[in-house]
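B., you asked whether I could sanity-check this one before it goes into the benchmark set. Here's the sequence:
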Amino acid sequence: MNPSDKYEQIKDIKRLNPVELEATVVHHEQQIKDIAAHLLELKQLVTPMMEFKPGLRAIPWVGLTDAERDSCWLKVDSWSTCMFTLEKILREKNGG
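And here's what the prediction gave me:
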């Protein structure tokens, strides 16, 4: 809204008699209450979706056994290959 439009609105409000002005105020107050009620309704719909749920996984994380860690060195020839092997085992155990 540009300043001249704002000025015209103020001039229009000044032309209202007290009864019209009061009716305008009551109308705007009702609009504000309606908007507030609508926002509250939206908040009640959205809040359950946004609540913090501890842990992102529905199932607990499964780690490596000592035997799996130790056997990695027997199967591979380098540290990086061992890490990729361990990662593959963890993914399989954790469904991903």
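One thing to flag: The chain is about 75% helix and 0% strand. Otherwise nothing jumped out at me.
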